[in-house]
Amino acid sequence: MRILLLCLLLLVAKAGWADSPAARVNGVDIGLLRLERYFSEYLQAQGRAVTSIRNPTLYKRLRSQALDELIDKELLWQEAQRRGIAISDEQVSAQLGEVEAAFSSPALFERRLAEAGFDRAAYADYLHRELAAQQVYAQLSAVAEPTQAEVEAFYQANQERLQGAQNQSDNSSVIREQGLVLARASLISQLQAQSRQAARQRLRESAKVEIAD
């Protein structure tokens, strides 16, 4: 999260951009300016730059993916409000302090905020929304710890792949023990990914989302 926040702060807002809606989520607008900022952040997280994309089809696809993520963020924020998720001023201040500490001086931090179209209060509000959305996302996508039988079954089904990721050993019991540890971690990761996808899908199905032409 910290890296993404820093990327966001390094963006220069396009002065004079008419902030008409790129999408509307349950009646709440996602403006073009917000999308353009997030699109640059989205590309930087992938090691890309806007100027490096020459293919119009690829540009359109990546921009659409960034908009999809923004829609999910808005849905999560709205769900957090419905659930009464409470983010304290102390949590926001701590996160703000972490971001600010990454800059060489308070003056540089303030300048980056201004360049990105924020003042300190607006950025604190952005952090509040992000923290609330992350919290509700964790709640919606929580998964139960897999049973030993489920781990064993996953290990048997993926034994060759898992053994390829293990440290080499001549001891078969060590190989199996390591494999089961990897199997548990891999299975939990898979279940969490499936749960996150299902959570986003449930929010989308119950929402009214309109994409601007």
TrEMBL record:
Please provide the record's keywords in A-Z order: Isomerase, Rotamase, Signal
The record's section on Pfam families has: SurA_N_3 (PF13624)
Is Repeat set as a keyword in this record?
A: no
Q: Which residues form the signal peptide?
A: 1-18
Keyword Flavoprotein attached = no
One of the entry's Gene Ontology molecular-function terms is: peptidyl-prolyl cis-trans isomerase activity
Q: Which reaction does it catalyse?
A: [protein]-peptidylproline (omega=180) = [protein]-peptidylproline (omega=0)
- Its EC number is 5.2.1.8
- Source domain of life is Bacteria
Q: Which InterPro entries match?
A: PrsA_foldase, Trigger_fact/SurA_dom_sf
- Please give the name of this protein: peptidylprolyl isomerase
Q: Which organism is it from?
A: Pseudomonas putida (strain W619)
